[in-house]
Design goal:
By secondary structure, the chain is of the alpha/beta class. The protein has a single domain, classed as P-loop containing nucleotide triphosphate hydrolases (Rossmann fold). The protein is about 45% helix and about 20% strand. The strands form two sheets. Strands 2-7-1-8-9 form a five-stranded parallel sheet, with helices on both faces. Helix 5 packs antiparallel against helix 6. The mean pLDDT is about 90.
Length: about 200
């Protein structure tokens, strides 16, 4: 009677330290049927990160080659390093009627919106810049000048929240994950999405 809608691209964006990666991991734990878009990056791998799970770490030369071959859905220079989203997993998720999570920044989110009408954009905001600063310092992964740079960029990114479909304030992580979960569920039931199937 009803056709299943196309795959759903869920873009989750926040300033660095805002919680988007933790939220995506929690959603994947709660919903093993969800897919996760593993981004490419030219930045060095941190000690706790796993190749192919957290990111695919590649050289700038290889990154440029992938851009030239048209293999990326979006890419951006963030904090002096290149980040990008491969097209193949996204297009497969759409074809297979799957939900795929994209943990990307504001620049990337805007590009995905332009390219894929199957996307919804969720902006995760810290309760305040003071809380964000405390979270960044609590990670103990960056030097002082990097933290200052991330905070300056965060202020600019937060200004773009109104370009997103949803805004969720990340005060308590479990509550935030549940809010995002409800948004995704509601989007899969949208009549407009089902019509596009």
């Amino acid at each position: 009677m009803f056709e299943k809608g196309p795959g759903l691209l869920v873009v989750v964006s926040s300033p660095s330290g805002g919680g988007k990666t933790t939220i995506c991991r929690s959603l994947l734990h709660r919903h093993p049927d969800y897919l996760y878009s593993v981004s490419l990056t030219t930045r060095p791998r941190r000690s706790f990160e796993v190749e192919g799970k957290d990111y695919m770490f590649i050289s700038e030369e290889e990154f440029e080659q992938r851009i030239n071959r048209g293999e990326l859905a979006e890419w951006a220079n963030v904090h002096g390093h290149l980040y990008g989203t491969p097209k193949v997993p996204i297009e497969k998720a759409i074809k297979d009627h799957r939900i795929i999570l994209l943990d990307i920044d504001v620049q990337g989110g805007m590009r995905i919106r332009e390219e894929y009408h199957q996307s919804i954009l969720i902006f995760i905001s810290p309760p305040s810049l003071q809380v964000l600063e405390a979270r960044l310092r609590g990670r103990f992964t960056e030097k002082e000048e990097i933290i200052e740079k991330r905070l300056a960029i965060a202020q600019k990114e937060i200004e773009h929240w109104s370009r997103y479909d949803y805004l969720v304030i990340n005060e308590e992580i479990e509550e935030t994950v549940s809010s995002v979960e409800v948004i995704i569920k509601a989007e899969t039931c949208r009549v407009e999405r089902l019509k596009r199937g």
